[in-house]
Automatic annotation (TrEMBL):
Source organism per UniProt: Candidatus Methylacidiphilum infernorum
Domain ABC transmembrane type-1: 41-328
Topological category with respect to the lipid bilayer: Multi-pass membrane protein
InterPro entries named in the record: AAA+_ATPase (IPR003593), ABC1_TM_dom (IPR011527), ABC1_TM_sf (IPR036640), ABC_transporter-like_ATP-bd (IPR003439), ABC_transporter-like_CS (IPR017871), P-loop_NTPase (IPR027417), Type_1_exporter (IPR039421)
Localization: Cell membrane
The entry's keywords: ATP-binding, Membrane, Nucleotide-binding, Transmembrane, Transmembrane helix
Name of the protein in question: ABC transporter ATP-binding protein
Pfam families registered for this protein in UniProt: ABC_membrane, ABC_tran
Ubl conjugation found in the keyword field: no
Transmembrane segments: 36-56, 86-115, 164-185, 191-210, 277-297
Matches recorded under PANTHER family: ATP-BINDING CASSETTE SUB-FAMILY B MEMBER 10, MITOCHONDRIAL, ATP-DEPENDENT PERMEASE MDL1, MITOCHONDRIAL
């Protein structure tokens, strides 16, 4: 069977290329808001009431000016109401104004808290979906994507789903409603003035049209630079030990500064562009206001308009221009949100090159027979790593894989775990092609112990439990005991509840490996894959670890990849892999007699002196 390697994830820029593109992104956010439809409609009803109150705001002042103040000042003494009643009328006007503001503010508070809660819940779901999706993406994706970029997408890009909702739904709806309401009232108040006020609209739309795509592009650049800065930071901080050991602090700082400067320049560029844009919008609306003031003042002087009417008109003018401004800013805010969300949805669009078959076979516990049939594999086109591999490992058999560095040993283990699929050939476990098995079912039958055990920044107990989620505390202690790490853990300040630090920094390499073995004991899977589990340890620690390894290997099909020939020399079956092919096979002694690759490696490593003092596995395991 032939398959092709999947292309690595898209590195192309994420700017939505057209309005249609942006709309398709907006559409993809709809499912995140669908559960809240009734709440959203409730909010929008409140928005309608709030806009109505907004439109009422200028009227108490207009009434005060025209009906009370002007009349009172023009006809002192002849005003039909007594002076003390004028005070009551002034009070009533002010009270009405205050009440309108009070109810409007209260409504705004309720609307905002409801809308933000809905938006935050949508954000939570999008973040969870993104993280979950990434958990199942094949290794090939993670190997070719910077972790900083992924973190940026999950932490920051996802927030645009809130922006889209708050600005897109609430702002657009309330602004449009206010705009239309204001326009209707203004046209009724003074048709000619209202049309003049609208005269600036085309100018505003031209400015928006010209600037939106520029700002959208700059916003994407900001996201990319911020994402690189985060990647740079996370890479350098996680490599701090190496940086300090090689005295590379200055170089790391220089590299960070470079990324930070890039981010600063693009941010500054973006800020300048948005400020220029805001300035233009403000100037256009100021021009509109000045024109209306000029014409309105002349109308007042000619007696065709009262001062109160001019005042109310100017108030409405603000209510007309403010939503216009809001809408213009919203357009590029939405574009910028669309480009961030595109970076999320393009993750969802990455096809899973290693899908579970529709009716995948589930096997609770395999016997452990492994067969490679004509398996060839390459990570990158034109660079074959494994070439037509054929071998069978029987249940419970222990096989060592040795060979020069880069010959493909780890790749063999990766294929068994189905981290990748072979380009040609098939791999069978208990006679079942592993591509027909459910990946979860396959992997729960495998324990993988690596050269460096990966630990999480949590308790020892939780780190061991990683091997079997539903393990009881006593099973965890028993596994630790079998990995000979129980007494060490008991001496820790909080025993099994001790936090091990990020990547287990508070523990030694040997202690980390033992916790890794405890995990494997707990998992107790029938297939054990050991990828140089002792290579990073000194000889003494390696010797101490070996008895635990032997216990772990009992009754399990074991593949042991190692460079330490003394550790496996007495095994009955050793595969020697060179350049992606098995070139020799046999026991250590048989291979030495062949005087081939194994012999050369043996001599080069000066292992004979070690074996003479006793191979680690020699006395204990009848392999
Ligand atoms: N994720 C990857 N992407 C691309 N190439 C890879 C990847 N992993 C390994 N390779 C390449 O595949 C080849 C085989 O690598 P592999 O890790 O299987 O070798 P190995 O025999 O285990 O080496 P070592 O003994 O040094 O651990 C090497 O040339 C390596 O550069």
């Amino acid at each position: 069977m032939k398959t092709t390697n999947q292309a690595s994830p898209s590195k192309k820029k994420s700017t939505p290329s057209s309005l249609f593109d942006s709309f398709s992104i907006y559409k993809r956010t709809l499912p995140y808001y669908r559960p809240f439809l009734s709440k959203i409609f409730f909010c929008l009803t409140l928005v309608v009431i709030s806009v109505g109150l907004n439109l009422l705001r200028p009227w108490p002042v207009k009434w005060l000016i025209d009906e009370v103040l002007l009349k009172a000042s023009n006809s002192l003494g002849t005003f039909p109401v007594p002076v003390q009643n004028i005070t009551v009328m002034v009070f009533l006007g002010c009270f009405a104004l205050f009440t309108i503001y009070l109810v409007h503010s209260g409504l705004t508070l309720i609307i905002n808290s409801l809308l933000y809660k809905i938006a935050l819940l949508a954000l939570l779901k999008l973040r969870t979906d993104t993280f979950s999706f990434l958990q199942y993406l094949p290794l090939r994706f993670h190997e070719s994507t910077q972790s900083g970029d992924i973190i940026y997408r999950i932490a920051y890009d996802t927030q645009s789903i809130m922006t889209l909702f708050i600005r897109g739904v609430s702002t657009i709806f309330s602004s449009l409603l206010l705009l239309v309401g204001t326009l209707v009232v203004m046209l009724k108040l003074n048709f000619y003035l209202a049309l003049t006020a609208l005269g600036i609209a085309p100018l505003l739309w031209i400015v928006i049209g010209v600037n939106t795509s520029k700002i959208r592009h700059k916003s994407t650049q900001v996201q990319e630079k911020e994402s690189s800065l985060l990647s740079e930071t996370s890479e350098r901080i996680s490599a701090i030990r190496l940086i300090q050991a090689y005295s590379q602090e200055e170089k790391a700082i220089a590299s960070f500064k470079n990324a930070a400067w890039n981010s600063l320049n693009t941010n500054y560029d973006y800020l300048l562009a948005t400020n220029r844009y805001s300035l233009l919008v403000t100037l256009i609306t100021a021009l509109g206001t000045a024109i209306i003031l000029f014409i309105g003042a002349k109308e007042v002087l000619n007696g065709r308009l009262s001062i109160g009417q001019l005042w109310i008109f100017l108030s409405y003018l603000a209510s007309l221009y403010q939503p216009m401004e809001q809408l213009s800013y919203t357009s590029w805010t939405l574009e910028s949100a669309a480009s961030s969300l595109k970076r999320i949805f393009e993750l969802f669009d990455i096809p899973n090159e290693l899908p579970d078959p529709p009716k995948g076979i589930e096997i609770d516990q395999v016997q452990g027979k492994i067969e490679f049939r004509n398996v060839s594999f390459q990570y990158n086109p034109g660079k074959p790593v494994l070439k037509n591999l054929n071998f069978v490992i029987n249940p419970g058999e222990h096989v060592a894989i040795v060979g020069p560095t880069g010959s493909g040993k780890t790749t063999i283990l990766s294929l068994i775990c189905r981290f990748y699929d072979p380009n040609e050939g098939e791999i069978f476990i208990d006679g079942v092609d592993i591509r027909k098995m459910k990946k979860k079912s396959l992997r729960q039958n495998i324990s993988l112990v690596l050269q460096d055990t990966v630990l999480f920044n949590t308790t020892v107990e939780e780190n061991i439990r990683f091997g079997k989620e539903q393990a009881t505390p006593s099973q965890i202690i028993e596994s630790a005991r079998r990995a000979s790490v129980d007494s060490f853990i008991s001496q820790l300040p909080k025993g099994y509840k001790t936090i091990v630090g990020e990547k287990g920094v508070f523990l030694s390499g040997g202690q980390r490996q033992r916790i890794g073995l405890a995990r494997a004991f707990l998992r107790n899977a029938p297939i054990l894959l050991l990828d140089e589990p002792t290579s990073s340890l000194d000889l003494k620690t390696e010797q101490q670890l070996v008895s635990s390894l032997l216990l772990l290997m009992q009754n399990k099909t074991t593949l042991f990849v190692t460079h330490r020939l003394h550790a496996i020399h007495n095994w009955k079956r050793i595969l020697v892999v060179v350049d992606g092919k098995i070139c020799e096979e046999g026991s250590g002694e048989e291979l030495l007699r062949k005087k081939g690759v194994y012999y050369k490696m043996w001599m080069a490593g000066n292992f004979s002196s070690l074996t003479n003092s006793g191979s680690f596995f020699e006395k204990t395991v009848p392999l």
